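sry for the spam today, last one i promise. struct tokens for design, 140 residues
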């Protein structure tokens, strides 16, 4: 899935570019075209957080001179419109024998300013709030 993109140079080579400014509790979002989709193998969006060498302000655009200071934290799926009440089921976590702190259904969140519903999966950076929680408190 997103493992090759732990190396940010690979993401750049595959034409990923920033689609969001810096968002506290998330980082920067990158996509290689349309960020929309519900394919488990292609989340559409890679979410990178910054190291101590890079400290952007909230809302600040990504500075490419700091590409080496980005670390892959998670991925995100986006669907157009407000679908938080009836989101797609990508992982079928309700059938899992594991207890999840935040279920997939609880993780889907509507972004009214940009008119999409999103689901983060913090699969590269542990999240004490849960793998599907919209934000990660371990990221500034």
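last one done:
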């Amino acid at each position: 899935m997103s493992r090759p993109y732990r190396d940010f140079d690979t993401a750049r080579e595959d034409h990923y570019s920033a689609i969001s400014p810096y968002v506290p509790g998330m980082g920067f979002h990158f996509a290689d075209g349309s960020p929309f989709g519900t394919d488990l193998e292609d989340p559409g969006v890679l979410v990178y957080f910054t190291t101590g060498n890079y400290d952007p302000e909230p809302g600040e655009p990504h500075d490419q001179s700091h590409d080496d200071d980005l670390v892959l934290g998670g991925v995100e799926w986006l669907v157009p419109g407000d679908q938080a009440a009836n989101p797609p089921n990508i992982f079928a976590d309700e059938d899992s024998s594991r207890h999840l702190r935040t279920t997939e259904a609880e993780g889907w969140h509507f972004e009214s300013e940009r008119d999409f519903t999103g689901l983060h999966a913090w699969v590269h950076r542990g999240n004490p709030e849960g793998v599907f929680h919209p934000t990660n408190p371990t990221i500034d």
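The mean pLDDT is 92. ok im logging off now
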